Amino acid sequence: MGNSFGELFRITTWGESHGGGVGVVIDGCPPRLALTEKDLQPDLARRRPGQSRITTQRQETDAVRILSGTFEGKTLGTPISLLVENTDQRSEAYTEMQTKYRPSHADYTYDAKYGIRAWPGGGRTSARETIGRVAAGAIAKKILKKLFGVEVLACVQQVQKISAEINPDKFTLKQVEANIIRCPHKATAEKMIRLIDRTRKAGDSVGGVLLGVARGVPVGWGEPVFDRLEADLAKAMLSLPASKGFEIGSGFGGIAMKGSEHNDPFRMRGGKVRTTANRSGGVQGGISNGETIYFRTVFKPTATILQSQDTVSAAGKNVKLKARGRHDPCVLPRAVPMVEAMTALVLVDHALRHRAQNGK
Amino acid sequence: MGNSFGELFRITTWGESHGGGVGVVIDGCPPRLALTEKDLQPDLARRRPGQSRITTQRQETDAVRILSGTFEGKTLGTPISLLVENTDQRSEAYTEMQTKYRPSHADYTYDAKYGIRAWPGGGRTSARETIGRVAAGAIAKKILKKLFGVEVLACVQQVQKISAEINPDKFTLKQVEANIIRCPHKATAEKMIRLIDRTRKAGDSVGGVLLGVARGVPVGWGEPVFDRLEADLAKAMLSLPASKGFEIGSGFGGIAMKGSEHNDPFRMRGGKVRTTANRSGGVQGGISNGETIYFRTVFKPTATILQSQDTVSAAGKNVKLKARGRHDPCVLPRAVPMVEAMTALVLVDHALRHRAQNGK
Amino acid sequence: MGNSFGELFRITTWGESHGGGVGVVIDGCPPRLALTEKDLQPDLARRRPGQSRITTQRQETDAVRILSGTFEGKTLGTPISLLVENTDQRSEAYTEMQTKYRPSHADYTYDAKYGIRAWPGGGRTSARETIGRVAAGAIAKKILKKLFGVEVLACVQQVQKISAEINPDKFTLKQVEANIIRCPHKATAEKMIRLIDRTRKAGDSVGGVLLGVARGVPVGWGEPVFDRLEADLAKAMLSLPASKGFEIGSGFGGIAMKGSEHNDPFRMRGGKVRTTANRSGGVQGGISNGETIYFRTVFKPTATILQSQDTVSAAGKNVKLKARGRHDPCVLPRAVPMVEAMTALVLVDHALRHRAQNGK
Amino acid sequence: MGNSFGELFRITTWGESHGGGVGVVIDGCPPRLALTEKDLQPDLARRRPGQSRITTQRQETDAVRILSGTFEGKTLGTPISLLVENTDQRSEAYTEMQTKYRPSHADYTYDAKYGIRAWPGGGRTSARETIGRVAAGAIAKKILKKLFGVEVLACVQQVQKISAEINPDKFTLKQVEANIIRCPHKATAEKMIRLIDRTRKAGDSVGGVLLGVARGVPVGWGEPVFDRLEADLAKAMLSLPASKGFEIGSGFGGIAMKGSEHNDPFRMRGGKVRTTANRSGGVQGGISNGETIYFRTVFKPTATILQSQDTVSAAGKNVKLKARGRHDPCVLPRAVPMVEAMTALVLVDHALRHRAQNGK
């Protein structure tokens, strides 16, 4: 259970790191949308390992095939099935994982829950699972842009203690893609990269914070009471592996203020109801208010490191484990397309719900 | 849409602040559980306005009636319908709200979304909606305790910048209930109360952070990939009115560490696989690992204040709005039972899912 | 579980025959629809016991209250909670039911499933549960008529072996309501009533067939593959107590024909694609084709009879049971509004799904 | 939407007749079940075209691959993704279908609903979609047998007017598989086959009735109110292409009886509560009562025939259409594994729901 996300635009991901492949089925995509593999491959390239020296060096090409749901380059309104076959299957690199639980990984909890575990490459717990999300998210982003004029974008805002000031309304995809850490603030990006380089050489890892935004969302998306936009976004972000927190608008920082300082005043502007500040993060009462939606999500330092660690074996013995070979010193740049994908999936679902209720 | 929460233990809340009442229907409660109104009333008392000088002074008794789902004091396995009638309906206190949008409230977004709005008391956006959650949560807490030996508890950890050190494994309900701010650290509680008193007299408000814990959760609850425990908890918390963020375990603070510092080492203890630290917050890979689950959620300063604010009217004019009468300087102590309720609802749902898959 | 129906127009019924009352919560009703109790009471009157000599003589007034979801006579887009309090609670009439399982009732299966049973009046298995459906169905019918120009109607077509020829395109509500059996063919209705009168005096009961229709459904409603219109209608009908079968269009009778005889030829008529026969029953490939949707559902003879029957006791002894007092010789006329309600609930849900996908 | 079935054992099918393939994702399969392609291929062979002279002669091998969800021959508890690649893609055989709507097919309704249609082979409306169901059903049948001791079986009971007496408690898989029509009554089977042979040579088609049974279902499965076992079975059957009706137990025939004749008396037998007749069809109040569950579902005569028919073109002209080449004179024997699959999917879902609520 738990492998589906969304109500009206519903994705179901499947696949282990070692096996036939990984993929996703998307149910609820509107018909007559132009769609080919070329729409999906760019985001998969942003997600794939081996894209730069600061991420894991596993080589995966992640070529996606559309198996169903399109005809002559257009969506049919039927389920879209996407497949990425597994290729880099060096399971010998994981032999020690068969008998020892990696600290702060899911090896132990999977074993306890299911009584069985696909240990090579982490099986279902591998980040390869996010391939399906990113591919589906690319479709969701295209729908948002074409049908609703909404732009979804994410970037790396902070690595360890190195943080950039970023205006949610203004940074561009081009700026994000201009460097390998995907921080749109060039000088900060360079500092981040130097830190990661040092960490990588020590066989260690860092965490950080991503900023996600959605621009151009019309007033009225979001369903109170439980399916508030920010609630669904929070779930979406916390469903990403390694994420440990979420905040929207002023977030945890907002409590430094009193109510009189924190409230966003309304003013008419260009004939529209607007707010003169955006501490609400574009959402009020769970419903979009027409301002830019922005939020932050935190990723812990990657668990796999090349240092010896205390752990236990599946047989219940205290042992040492030292991962060998490749590790991922910083998952953040690869997480950028994941954050965009999950954001887009939440928004397109709410866009369709809004159409159901309002007929437009 | 969006008024239901949970899959196997599913609640549906309903009701506006002014109208016949508010309530909840609970579908999926196991049969043969002892249950009367007396099980529900204590948490409703912890939630209700007027309970102390530092919260809103509206007087609501919130007496709950069980309309269905029990027979001779035991649950039937059929839907439990709970009703709290509305009593304190002084809608004249809200007249100005009919024509002016309260800043950082949901008046404007509701109007834009639905084209109609129950303006007295905020209608569906009123915190009275949480009565249904708290009552259902009391049932969920009882199930967790009786059937699974799990204890759910929450408290106030921080008010504005005043913060308490609290050990998630150790604070007690008695400590929480010992003061009106519901912070188990007595000295800090007193500082918090003094701050709120000052703020209240200025007609202003404060926000803060709540800590939620679940103790005794067995290994194996939680459904990867999307319905991870932490993802469902994040959604649950962000679905509460005024909440702006969520973090589990080390959360946003965890990124100050490197992976080698952040990982939780495994060690055998008492014949069980345990971790010697708990930066994971009791969840790994979306699945409980047997350690205490703990998380923090932030509530912004209450939006209703007794000061003049810039806003717009429903007719599209720039106007001033100054709320009169009662306001809620600090919603945090009343949010404690809400956080407990939502936590318990998430956990009991996952407990039942686990039983479905594992037969126990 | 299992007390909700629908995805986008979702109802949740609750209540036992003896207890606080019965009711329903409706989530997903579009906003700004005129709605008061007067819209609901007529169908509840068609459903209630005691309405004529040929149904059960229990006296229930079934006065409904709208507890939430409307403001100044219009829907808010928030959940609509409806309550009918229980009044006629003569539980002593059911004393024998406490210890003996009524044949072909749900007493035994409930006891086995839940380990507890609200025996007075049948508890949750009472037909009072359908009050919530009928009230919600009245709202669904109103939405279909006002927003989509669709008319839903049902009638009694057959009682035991007495059957009427009825054209699905032509019979009217006025004809249906012209007699107590709700068969629009007057002469057949009289025969049916005479048969029921004889049966009633013998303390026995009859079953029969209802015809349900939906006129004016536009082309394109229905979701292949699993949520075909006919599949959802079949589930809706079989969810009614005492129903044992469903057929759409030619149904079981269609197999007397060869494919060349059974296919519905297409022809252009009035600029539209139409069929010159309607053995499909208005649905092709799970999707409405613009013709009248019609189907039949069968109700078994009512299980409660005033004759001595073999059964077993809760203690596991072979015993005799003879119901006393009132029984229901023919549930069919009261089932007419139930069939209409379930049909309308299915259709309004698909109407909203169609809007979600097509934006109109 | 609408391409998923089930709550706790949830399948999502995808695929068009011409494209990359067809498949299914199964979420909720219990872990540690032995499973390889060999478990799935036999039922796919019973479903595939070209298996005998009385069905369509298209040659499809339908070799299935398990892409995920198993490890070393055992299920992991993660999603099982199954793929059958498309091979026999002679789309030129369907050229006329590009511009003319086949009568009583879904060509027209799909075009109207989606504004686009994968015309080769019928696209998503092709019976190839049922491959995913049958493969998932084979897994469901295995779970039912291994974990719960339940046997699911179906057969052909009637072709046009030729009908067999079949005892739901007694016929065997071996008898069903003994002839190409899959009717366990040998003499009747021969008559059926002769009729189909004649019909086939005339380029025409026949319909008929299938009998489905589930033996050994324990007391207590099924969820009142809406998710009754018979309601979910009815939906399951009506979701199959070409099915037009469903009846459980006495079904439409039951109304010839009075209540005193129709009720199933309870008697103690072997220390258990049993019924001495089974007109209820093994279900009372939506819940299994421990007797054999049996039901019948009707399939209309196959729509594709080799005779000239009136229809309209996509351009809105009245035209003639005569299908060429291969047609399917009788879909019934191939529908047998489909009925078994859908039955098993319903039952395994309810088995898991029962475990959720009762812990066993």
How does this structure look, described?
4 copies of one chain form a homotetramer. With 360 residues, chain A is an alpha+beta fold. Chain A has a single domain, classed as Chorismate synthase AroC (Chorismate synthase, AroC fold). Helix content of chain A is 26%, strand content 23%. The first copy, chain A, has helices at 41-47, 107-114, 130-148, 173-176, 186-201, 229-238, 259-262, 332-358; strands at 4-5, 10-15, 21-27, 64-68, 70-71, 74-75, 80-85, 151-159, 162-163, 208-215, 243-248, 266-269, 272-275, 283-284, 287-288, 293-299, 308-312, 318-322. In chain A, the strands form 6 sheets. A 5-stranded antiparallel sheet of chain A has the order 1-2-3-7-4, with helices on one face. Chain A has a 5-stranded antiparallel sheet with strand order 9-8-10-16-11. In chain A, strands 5-6 form a two-stranded antiparallel ribbon. In chain A, a hairpin with a 2-residue loop joins strand 5 (70-71) and strand 6. Strand 11 of chain A pairs antiparallel with strand 11 of chain B.
Layout of secondary structure:
The structure is a homotetramer of 360-residue chains.
Chain A lengths: L3 E2 L4 E6 L5 E7 L13 H7 L16 E5 L1 E2 L2 E2 L4 E6 L21 H8 L15 H19 L2 E9 L2 E2 L9 H4 L9 H16 L6 E8 L13 H10 L4 E6 L10 H4 L3 E4 L2 E4 L7 E2 L2 E2 L4 E7 L8 E5 L5 E5 L9 H27 L2
Antiparallel strand pairs in A: 1-2, 2-3, 3-7, 4-7, 5-6, 8-9, 8-10, 10-16, 11-16, 12-13, 14-15, 17-18
